[in-house]
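> run fold Oligosaccharide repeat unit polymerase
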Amino acid sequence: MRALGWLYLLAIAGLAAAQIQLGASPWLLAVLVLIALTVALPLASDAWRVSDGLYAIMTVYFGSGSLLIKTAAGQPVQSNLHVPDLSAGYLLAGFASITIGYGLSQKVRWPLRFAEQLRTVTDDGANLQRFALPVFALGALFLFLQTQFRGNAVNGGFEAGFGGFGAFYPLLPLGAAMQAALVARAYRGRWRHGVVLAMMGLVILALSLADNTKRTLFDFMFVVALAFVALGGRGRWVWIVPGAVGAALALVLLVPAIQIVRTQADVRGPARIGATWQVLYAHGFDPARLARTGERVATGYQRAWRGSYVYPLTWNVERFTMILPIDQVARALDTRGTMGGADLWRDPAETLLPGFLIRKTLVTAPDRIAWHYGFRAKGSIARPVVGLVASSLAAFGLIGVLLLPALVVAMTFVALDLVGGRLAGNAWAVFLLATTAFLAEREVSTTLSFFCRSFPFILLTGGVLLLLRRRGRGEQRA
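> ok
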């Protein structure tokens, strides 16, 4: 871990030097470098927990991601920002608040007995072989149903549909984590377990194309890679090379193809698999041609494109550059004011309460923030990534930036550490980190919504695993 830390430090120094050559704003550059270097806090720990991994991911979203992307684009970090110095101040204050929340969460020394029992369950090869495939199959089934029945994006909004099957999504990474654990720990029949894991990858690929989303594919790659690291798996070239090639192909071929297929509004569900193949075939499986077509698609969304952090490029990487939404809120804060606290509870309330008590819509907090501050057309449901600091700024201004991130992060990290425990040798904690990594880019209200919907289902899933394990033991004794 120490060697990795030194390599990371050299990389950040190189990016900072490149930004100085590009004429970067000293204040903004210093803030981004400082945030990027705070990854040293979790790296200093010898026993990583879920909170350590999630905090490390947040340093990428709020710091090193902007450095890497803007340097790769050949642009100084302040370009395309309207109020870079003010935004840098809010970013520093907000991430300091996040770090305080992270520090408070470290007071939790031991996980719950529930977490220790799940660690034991997922440490047993027999249990992994018993549960991995059925759990994954259930997750795949519910995601397929989600692609069939949920509302589709049309004309800046969404059609009516049923999105309840999405609550079962955590089953998919849980099954993948268990199967990856079988391979990483070299249980008997490793080749067979590896083949099953590869077949799971193909199912994930098909579901990603049918759902026309990239998250499912990236979640699978992340949970498998994390499992090998956390479980001490020894990489073999026979596994590493195909995995690396597959990941590279996904980036250069499938990502632009998925973006292109989104323009075909009449293509739904499994038909998107064929449509994606047709797009790839029509472009001769040429990454350069696909990229050019993808750029033409992206430039069609004029407001999002011109408001991009890397404009005039069309990389669609804003989720890894949290300085941008902070700037988008800060530039209009004087004229449009804050939104208050009522909006923070709207999404959790819609998640918890039945329809006869509250009118439910497809609009979420990021949309309302984007409409209020004018960086998306009002009425357009685009669900842009706003993030924890920018949403806190939108709610209560500077006071919100100083207080809300610490409160939300402390609550989130404590809950995840209590039910997850340490990552090393723990397939359950690997799953928990992989399935909650998206919280690094979420807003206050959408994080609260997670605890109203997905988190209880994760706890229920863990409880069912424990019950099935005890039932299996009882049958063996009988």
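Residues 120-302+450-475 form one domain.
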